[in-house]
Amino acid sequence: MKSKLLKALVTMEVRVKEFVKREEGEFGIGWVIGVAIVLIISAFVLVPGLRGFAEDIMEKVEGWYSNTIEAKIFNAS
Asked: So where does this one cross the membrane (predicted)?
């Protein structure tokens, strides 16, 4: 299994190197760099927003658990 994966990776590496050597490769590399830049910038914009979103969800789940599960199902009194 590992040898098949290794062979596939080596084959992919050779194909990528050949592609980059051709003129189309320059366009491909520029495209990949552009996508990477967009993803990095998006991460800086989205990650802080996702943190607030996750905190909001956790607060609502805690409230639901306290008001529904603990109060009605596991009522200790």
From this structure: 29-50
Number of residues written out for the chain: 77
pTM of this structure = 0.40
The full set of domain ranges for the chain reads: 2-73
Residue 53: predicted pLDDT = 85
Q: Express each pLDDT in 19-34 by its tens digit.
A: 767 666 566 777 788 8
For 32-55, give the DSSP string. HHHHHHHHHHHHHHHHHHHHHHHH
Q: Find which of 14-18, 50-54, 60-64 is predicted with most confidence, using mean pLDDT.
A: 60-64
Under a CB-based contact definition with an 8 Å cutoff, are residues 28 and 19 in contact? yes
For residue 57, give the nearest of 68, 45, 65 by alpha carbon.
65
